[in-house]
Amino acid sequence: MTDTNASTAAPAELATHMPDTEVRGLLRLLPRGARPYALLARFDRPIGWWLLFWPGAWAVALAGGLPERWPLILWLLLGAIVMRGAGCVYNDIVDRDLDAQVARTASRPIASGAVSLKAAWAWLVTLCLVGLVVLLQLRLAAQIVALASLLLVAAYPFMKRITWWPQVWLGLVFTWAAPVGWVEVTGSMAPAGLQLYAGSLFWVVGYDTIYALQDREDDELAGIKSSARAMGAHVRAGVGLCYGTALLLWGTAFWLTAQVPLAVAALLPMALHFLWQVGTLKQDGADPLLKFRSNRFAGLLMLAACLVVGSA
Fold this sequence. Notes:
It is built from 20 helices and no strands. The protein has 312 residues and is mainly alpha-helical. It is globular.
């Protein structure tokens, strides 16, 4: 996506920007030396931490934790911001050679040389320390659940080298806030919480397959595997299947929570949004990024549904 303020930015700064960046005025207020670190943690692209945050917020709402536990929502939001940033830094450290071979990622701070490898590790530790502060706000059982995700997170950057379905692994990682939020509110896991988590996993596979459409040609040249490449000409059907499975699993979670047929009807707005995404999806140009980012709004629709069912 073209930066509408490009004419006012220094060439060196533009070299560190992602083509689909959402950089606006706030990032430009940072000292020039700090900007590559903000870009490395994707602070300029909030869609990532929104997507990481939503499953945790859904779990708190569906488990009946709102409005009483509203401070927990804020802690989960802060955790999503810093841990998504930490995950991006770690991913870029591991993928620095691959990133240099893909047009959309070649300008990332490590791949382009704007941030040294040593400095990237130091930045990663700093973000993890902030994440530790968030972790300490949770009950012990939720802390254990949260820490159990670390091995999944550490393995994710390598999945695109060994499987055609790295999006499934991303789904395991990017929805982990759901079990954390559920256990924090209730003290233990329940079938409804597991169904919510499983449905969220298929949601991630769907939207990240859409995102991966942007890189199919470059990924093929670099030998990078993805669900978008695996689905080939059947991407629309594949994404539709993922979204349909997500709705089925979420509907089961709603039924287990409220045990009334109308509970499942709360998913109708989400279903219509998914129908729009799949029905109008174009596999090239700017449309995949537009559809991917629309999942921020989808998360809000799902939160509303979880609030209705969780408070019933």
